[in-house]
Amino acid sequence: MALLTPQGVKRVFQFQKLEGREHLRSLLNWEEFDELRDARRSILLDTLYDSIIFAAGKGFPWVEVAKVVKFTEELLKETKGCSITEAVMTLGNKLRDYQGQFNTSHLLALCDYFHNTFLRHYRLYQYVLGQDQDVNLTVTHLEVCAPPQPLPLAEGKDRDVWKHEQQVAELILGEEQKRTNMLLLKEALRLEQEHLLQKTLSEGPVRLSQALKREELGDLINKAIHVQVKCLRELLQYEIQVTFDILDLKLQKKTLNLNAPIPLPLPTTGPPGQDESPKLHKANKGKKAKAKKK
Question: 150-164 pLDDT, tens per residue?
Answer without folding.
Answer: 878 777 778 888 888
